[in-house]
Design brief:
Order of helices and strands: HHEHEHEHHHHEEEEE
Radius of gyration: 18 Å
Shape: globular
Strand order of the largest sheet: 2-1-3-4-5-6
Number of helices: 8
Distance between the termini: 40 Å
Oligomer: single chain
Number of strands: 8
Amino acid sequence: MKKIIEGYYTFFQHYFEKKSLYQDLFHQQKPEVMFIACCDSRVDPALLVSAQPGDIFVERNVANVVPHCNEGPNSILIALEVALCTFEVENIIVMGHQRCAGVQLLACNTLHNFGAVPAEYIQREKDLKIGLKKPYNQQSADEFEKLNILLSYQNLLSHEIVSNRVKNRKVAVHGWYFSLHSGKFETLCPTCLQFTDLMVECCGKRVV
């Protein structure tokens, strides 16, 4: 806790002891990008993209799972409504990462060891099993992690609140994969549904 409290004092001195952007953010926020990310302590979206307070709207859950519209109500839908209807974000990024413990739990069907499993996680276990007919191990981990992003990406588009805005070019949806080993991002190409380096062209154009 000492480290946390000292960190707070550093934050306070930097942002509140003199005039700062928080005086403007007190009145309103206008993030342009929404991240749907994992809870993992190593992959804070704001840190990874050097975002300032107010830049991004973040929803985090274990393994960055987005349920399909047919799977019923979920707290992530409220976050989507706020991001799209209130803040009118222009981009939504589903961000997964290497060595994701949540994906491992899903791929190995061991999430139930911690208690009752939400419906969307039960479905995700099934979808990963169907999508990759192989055991989870160190060699196949990244395949499961990237499939998990793809499934959330596709499920995100199943919601009319998202798909209608995509159709009208009011919002764009992305899938990003972060490598803890290299520090690089790969992004999902919406045309071929393959992951490529964030800064490299795919299918004739830059994915971003």
